TrEMBL record:
Name of the protein described by the UniProt record: Phosphate transport system permease protein
GO annotation, cellular component aspect: plasma membrane
Lineage: Bacteria, Pseudomonadati, Pseudomonadota, Alphaproteobacteria, Sphingomonadales
Protein's organism: Sphingomonas kaistensis
Pfam families: BPD_transp_1, DUF3708
Chain's role: Part of the binding-protein-dependent transport system for phosphate; probably responsible for the translocation of the substrate across the membrane.
Similarity section: Belongs to the binding-protein-dependent transport system permease family. CysTW subfamily.
Amino acid sequence: MSLAVGLLLVLGVAAAAFVLARGRATALRVGGGAGRQRLNSLPFYHGAYAFLWAVIPALLFLACWAPIQQALITDAVMASPAGQQLPDFDLARDSILSEAQAVASGASDIAFNPQAQALVPVFASATTRFSLIGGGFALLLALAGAGWAFSRIGVDLRARAGVEKWLMGLLVAASMIAILTTFGIVLSLLFETMRFFQKVPAADFLFGTSWSPQVAIRADQAGSSGAFGSVPLFWGTIFIGAIIAMIVAIPLGLMSAIFLTQYAHAKLRKVLKPLLEILAGVPTVVYGYFAALTVAPLVRDLGLGIGISNASSESALAAGLVMGVMIIPFVSSMADDSIAAVPQAMRDGSLALGATRSETIRKVILPAALPGVVGGVLLAVSRAIGETMIVVMAAGLSANLTANPFNSVTTVTTQIVQLLTGDQEFDSPKTLAAFALGLVLFLVTLVLNLIALRVVRKYREAYE
């Protein structure tokens, strides 16, 4: 019996518990005269109470048992005579085990490695044994929970309160998953970053202006000493995503929202708003092709036309312009919703005092909608900072510390992808540098979020 079969049996027991408990509760209140009793909760809640007691403990056990079972299966295989003949090299051993497990589970038809083929029956036997143990115990838990809940079915049982407690616990658990996931991400980044700073001084990384993460493989190899100054990467991220792209996205997005909410006819708005939001659904690789094939040559020709002789076909301006167009919907959509949420009384009061429509928009509506507008801009900045494909295809991979928008630059996310692509050793500073870049980028984004929240709260208090 596999864990999937055990899960189906648990669900079957829970469904049976629901039907039986609801039937028993219904029978308690059916009858006439003195035989009729008033239940504290409806029969449905009695059934749901039994269902939850049957299914949740068993599912929690299965969720915890799955990784434990995998470890037990691996230990059992390694303890077998065929497993003891495996090579000591971790990569080769893991490859053989993965191949044998794929054949044993039915994902593959045959193992090409003779050692893997010899382990297939061992894997199948161990998997069956531990699946029976886990599935059987989960089934016993489901039966025990269903029996205990069924024994409590009665007139005075506060079944609805019990169901609500279970649901509240599930909601709290769902919230904690997000929090714990974020905490785990930070810890993993922090751990690897500390390993990186043991090999490279933190000051060289944070304040260095040269980025060339090439590490010498041999002691006599020249030209690969490695330079891990991250300033050019973060400057490229800010230059493309927070300056050029925002110069494009904020005015166009905000003016689009103002036109759609204040000037456009209802029929025109129904057509233009979906067309504008289509931009958010276009794959970034399509934007990358557009930037590389259309915008970049135009930008290069513009630079050469105005006398910039070193204008490149891969430039920060080309990537920033296309990225700004891509994030226009993030700004316009949030600004649109915020402007539409401004009370009509504020508009009417301004117009009644003699203000024109443009003055009302500039001095009343936009200040009142500022929190939503700031939220949209923050969302757009976060989207732009995390973009990779457009930068790779239109801005290049050169880590240049330059303010010339016609030169090639790169960003943090692009370098992270490049550092982690292919077979890498996680003891190398070159690979560990990706985690340090990710942690610093996370902290920078966190600071931007805190600043934006403070601005939002300050102006929200003035209009509530």
